[in-house]
Structures are given as C-alpha cells and as structure tokens.
Amino acid sequence: MRKTSRLFTLAIGFLAAPVAGACDGAATGNADVPAALRIATFNIRELSTDRLTDVDGMGTGLDPGAVAAAVVVCEAKPDLLVLNEIDFDWRRPDDPTINARRFANHYLSVGPDSIVYPYAYSAPSNTGVLSGLDLNGDGIIASDSDRGTREYGDDSFGFGTYPGQYGMAVLSRFPIDAEGARTFQRFRWADLPGQHMPPGYLTPEAEAIFRLSSKSHWDLPVIIGPDTLHLWVSHPTPPAFDGPEDRNGRRNFDEIMFWVLYLDGNDRLVDDRGMAGGYRSTSPFVIAGDLNARPGDEDVVYEGVSAIDQLLQNPRIQDPDSANRITAHWLGGVRVDYVLPSSDLRVIGMGVVDPPLSADSTLARAAETASDHRLIWVDVRWPPAPLEP
User: Fold this and answer.
1) pLDDT tens digits, one per residue of 66-104
2) CB 8 within 8 A of CB 321
C-alpha cells in the first residue's frame, strides 16, 4: 500500500553506492491487488542493445548509464514503467521483449535488494525502418549501406540511424494482455482525420506511405486483479530539426492528436491487425511517455491550441502536475514527459525524481548520468472507484 500526503513529492533520498538493482524495500512480482497503483515514465539516454548486453559473468549489468537508470527506477519503485529510448532488437524478431527483460534482469533484479518485473511488453518501432523513398527532399534515397548516418535516419519512417533505435517498452508487476493490445505502428499519417501534413513538402509517393507514428502508438490492457487499466504509450517526434515547413512540429501535433481521436472512438483509426475504431472500453486509462511537447508552446500551434494542450485541456483527461514541473534538462528546463490518467481515476500523488545536484547524493548523480530527462510517476487509487462529488 502507498499513501501520499501531498500531491507532489520530490524524491531526494540518499542511496548507497550506485550498483545495479540498488533498491531498498523492493517491489516484487506476483503482486496482490494494491491500494494504490504507481505508473511511471522514464526516457533513459539511448538504452541500446550493446549497453544492455554489457554484463559480467554473473549476469550483472556493467554499463554506467544503465546502472544509473536502475538507481533512479529503484528510488521510485513503480508498478508500471514506460521506457522511452530503449532499442527494439531487430536481430531477435522472435523475442520482442528481449531488451526490456535485459534491463529488468541485468540491472533491476540483481543484488541483495532488487525490483522484479515479471511482465514486459514491446513491439516494433518505426525508428530506423527505411521507407525506400527520399523523405527529406535531398535527392538521395538512403539504403542499408547508409546505416549509422543521419541520411539513413531522415529517410526512415521514424528517425533512427539503425533499425529499432529509440524504441519503447513497458515493464509491469501485473500481467499485460499482449493479445488484447492494439498497436498503430503502420497507420498512415494521411489517414488521420484532420491531419496537418506539410502541404507540398512530401512527394505524392511519400504521402501515400508515410506513417503517423515516429515510433508507434500502443493501447496495452494491464490486468490488475479483477480490473483492467489501459496504458496508452507513445513517443512523438520532437518538434525540431526541420525547416519552415514544420514537418516535425506538425507530426508531433498529430501524434498527440491521435490520442484525442482514439479517446473519441474515431472509426477511421485502423490498428496493425486491421481493426478499425478508437477506444470503446469502459476501463480507465493512463497516457504515458515522453511526448516531446511543452504546455502552452507558442511555436507549435494548430487549430488554436498547442500540441500537448490537446490532452491537458481535455475534460476526460487529468493533469496531476498543474505546476508544470521540469522533466527534462534542456532549453533551460522543460516539461515534456507525462503521466496523464483518465478523469475517472483518483490521483493521490505524483512526483519527479529530480534531486538537485547541489545535494551531492548518489541519487542526484545517478539521475544526471542516466538521462537529460527525469523519471516521473503518478499514484492512483486502485481498484478504481467512483469519484466523490
């Protein structure tokens, strides 16, 4: 059971020397139905396959950045953890969760104190998947021989210099219904109702195949006792690295708009299995991930609203962090990472693991080493219950 007396809790605790699995009072698998459910998202700096397989003879992870990330995760101890920038290992298409399990097994669940996630989910990402066309208009069509270059990334459906770079994964203490999951990796941008594709920028051939998701969009049912929580996961492209056509800003806006249309049950959304329609379940949901969008961002505004405000101003979605706390340390500090519960869930706590470096603590150093983003979490009452008037 977790209870939080304040809406916001800043985690600035001190830990022992940073070792993998350095959890104190670990969460474990086969969990009973909790009184509170903690959902977190963490964009870890390039959690690549090479880094995840850097282990010693005992199977303990050695990569400093991944070790640091484990310290941060163990501080928050989330029940559900969304990971951004973790590779999808295309060398193992038979085992889509292998990198998520590598992080869980080699970095989180080793040592005398550990956190155990028995369940993992991942699926293919558009990052580093070549389109076969010239998407950036430079007159060159990238090929496999261009792997590792920006040209390769620019001609892929989602930017990545090799297949699966900057992918996504979910770790969970509770079963994930993979058969019931819906993914929208291949959904075309042109098919999104009200889309904002840059006029005249892409060739007709490119417009005909260009995918909306720079990574993917997932709706994952998580089974928690007799109830189900749907976790909506995405990682839109940053609204930068483009020109006056604002192709990335427009795509970011529309990747976020997808969730609005999905929530509205739009019939024109078609998942990777060919099933049409948006969300029709009565179960609660949580939107989580690095959405690469700042509240009130005046640089990316379409239909009179900024990208993330499409969600923050939606009456069916809650924003537990109305103070807009910093979640990423670039541009002087911005809020771009989100955990947004549906309005039928009761939020009882939230926090950002962002201790000041001046504290000179193990946790502060780990957060700085792991990423320029910070882990954020939200606690909701569980099982879901009617809100008081």
Assistant:
1) 999 999 999 999 999 999 999 999 999 999 999 999 999
2) yes
47-71 per-position pLDDT tens digit: 999 999 999 999 999 999 999 999 9
Domains of the chain by start residue, with CATH: 8-127+164-381 (3.60.10.10)
For tokens 């959890």, name the residue. Answer: 23
Q: What are phi and psi of 69, to 5 degrees?
A: -60, -35
Task: Name every residue whose Cβ is closer than 8 Å to that of residue 125 and which is 6 or more positions away in sequence.
Answer: 88, 158, 160, 164, 166, 167, 168, 185, 215, 216
Tokens read off for 355: 């201790």
What does pTM read for this prediction? 0.91
Asked if residue 114 lies in contact with residue 26, where contact means CB atoms within 8 angstroms, the answer is: yes
Sole residue written with tokens 């009130």: 296
Residue 156 CB neighbour total at 10 angstroms: 24
Tokens of 181: 């999951």
349 with 4: CB under 8 angstroms? yes
CA 68 from centroid of its chain's CA atoms? 19
In DSSP notation, 68-88 reads HHHHHHHHH--SEEEEEEE--
**Owner of token pair 């021989």:** 145
